[in-house]
Amino acid sequence: MFIAYVILAALMSAVLLSSAAAKFIRPKRLVGQMSTLAVPYSLLPFLGAVQIAGAAGLIAGSWWASLGIAAAVGVTFYFLGAVAAHLRVKDFPGAPPAAALAVVAVVVGLLRAATL
């Protein structure tokens, strides 16, 4: 189970860091999507920092289980917020990818909890 946690945590961290980089680089596609979701432009650096913290927590969770579980919970809530943001503006095609990432975050947390 621990190996599965490490692999999924690494993959989730890669997704989080990639998404965080986009929040700081601000490509036109991302800015347009955030406008559609009514997310203020000024919130992008905060969202990127939250994603970096989540990735760091998942990786550090390999050594400190409590931190890994807490990070997985935080990442889960982050992506549930993303699902809510998509549904709020009736962007139904955008909700399933965020929901899938929320489910993966739950699985990562459960895997880490199972290895205590």
TrEMBL record:
The chain crosses the membrane at residues 38-60, 67-89, 95-114. It is found in: Membrane. This is DoxX family protein. Pfam families: DoxX_2. It is a multi-pass membrane protein. Keywords: Membrane, Transmembrane, Transmembrane helix.
